[in-house]
Specification:
mainly alpha, 2 domains
């Protein structure tokens, strides 16, 4: 997105190339679908946005799409000329490790500062 609003056309060559050449073209179109098309059409329905469990599921799908988008940006630079996507067990374990650290950090913060996690807004106390 920075490429377009920053008016940096020289940075578009690699993005266009990744949408045309395998194996990255399948990933790039999947990322577009997962991160934009699917959430856009699902969130047009107002009733869907009022169901927290459904929204958590949708956010989880978009989270996976953003992870794949980062793979799309970094992957070709570290695996020149690969015939397939450079995904392995180690990549999944690293992702799960960072997800665990993030969850641990949030839970620790919520335990240490419970007064900041109140649902009452400051405007209601006036």
């Amino acid at each position: 997105m920075v490429i377009w609003y920053g008016n940096i056309p020289e940075e578009t060559a690699y993005v266009i190339e990744r949408t045309m050449l395998p194996p990255w073209n399948y990933l790039s179109w999947s990322v577009l679908s997962i991160c934009f098309v699917v959430p856009f059409f699902i969130l047009l329905n107002k009733a869907v946005k009022t169901k927290p469990k459904f929204m958590i599921g949708l956010v989880s799908v978009v989270f996976v799409g953003i992870w794949l988008e980062h793979l799309l940006l970094v992957g070709p630079a570290i695996s020149h000329g690969s015939a397939g996507l450079p995904l392995g067990l180690f990549d999944g374990l690293i992702t799960l490790g960072f997800l665990g650290l993030m969850i641990f950090s949030v839970v620790y913060y919520m335990d240490e500062f419970p007064e900041l996690m109140q649902l009452d807004s400051p405007m209601e106390k006036r």
